[in-house]
Amino acid sequence: MGESKGTVQSRVWRDGQLIEKDFPFEQISDYLEQEGCLVWVDVCDADSPRLTELAGELSLDPNAVEDAVAQRERTKAIRYDTHVFLTVYGVRAAGRLPAGADGADTVDPAVGEPGLVFARVSAFVMPRGVVTVRASDFDVAPVVQRWEDNADLLKFGVGGLVHGLLDVVVDGHFEAVQLLDDAMEELEDDLFDDRARTTVVQRQTYQLRKDLVSLRRVVLPMREVVNAVLRHRQDLHHSAELDSWFDDLYDHVLRAAEWTESLRDMVTTIFETNLSLQDARLNTVMKKLTGWAAIIAVPTAVTGYFGQNVPYPGFEQKWGFWLSIVMIVGVAGALYAAFRRRNWL
Length: 345
Description:
The protein is an alpha+beta fold. 56% of the residues lie in helices and 15% in strands. Strands 2-1-3-7-6-5-4 form a 7-stranded mixed sheet, sandwiched between helices.
C-alpha cells in the first residue's frame, strides 16, 4: 500500500551506528542537541499543521518551510541561519512505480515511448541532522539503502546523509538521460525505415523534446546545489574526509548536464533530419507520379488528337456502360489504396 499523508519516519545514528528507528516526534530536538548523534527525519506529503509543528520544534526558517510545500519550486540550495535548505527532483520513467506505491502511470500508446515522472524532495540540513519533506512519488528506500551500504560515511557527520541523498538523485538523472538516449537511437532507426509512419515519428520526437526540456530544468541546477553544499560545509561541520566523495558527485553532475546538452543537439538534428527525409520522399513520389503521368499522356494525347472511338465490348449496350463505370471505380480505388499505403495521400 502507498504511504499515507503526513507519514513520518526517523532514524538516529551514533558514531555511524544505528541506535534507534521511528522514535517519538518530540525527541527530535533532543537527539539533535546530543554530541555524536546524527538524525534523519522524513515527512511524506506533509500538510501545513504537521510541517508547522516540525518547524517550531527545530526553529526552521518560515520561508524555507513555505518553499517545502509550495508547488513547482525550482531546484535550489539556500543558506539560512540555522540550516541549509535544498530542493531537488528525482526522476523515473513513467510506468515504473516506486516500491509500495499504488496504481500505475499511464503511457500514451500512440507516443510509443514512456515519459518521465519528476518527484520533488526538500531537505533541511542542520549540523547534526537532515529533515526531508517529500511527495509520496519520491521513493526514499534507495536513499536509506545507500546510507546502509556506505555506513562508514555516516561517522563523518551530516555530510554523509546529504551525499547519499544527492547521489541517489543524480543516479536517477543518469538513468533518465540513458532512457532518452536509447529512445533517440531507436527513433534514428525509424527515420530511415520506409515502413515507419511519419505521424508516429513526429509524435515520438515531440515527446522526447518535451521530456528533455523538463529534464534539463532539474539536471542543470544540480551544479549549483552541490557547489552550495561544498561552500557551506564548514557551517554544517562537513568533515574533510567527504570532500573526495562530493568531488566525485560533482563530476557525475557535470557529466549528466553535459549529456543532456548533447541530447538537446541530437533531438534537434533528428527533427531536422525527419523534415529533410520527408522532403526527399516527397520528391521521389513526385518523380514517380510524373513519370507515369508522362507515359500515360502519350497514348491519351494520340487517341484524343485523332478522335479514335472504335466499338468495344458492350458498345451501345447498357451492360457496357456499367462495365466501364466498374472499371473506372475499381482502378481509381486500387490506386487510392496503393497511394494511401505508401503515405502519398
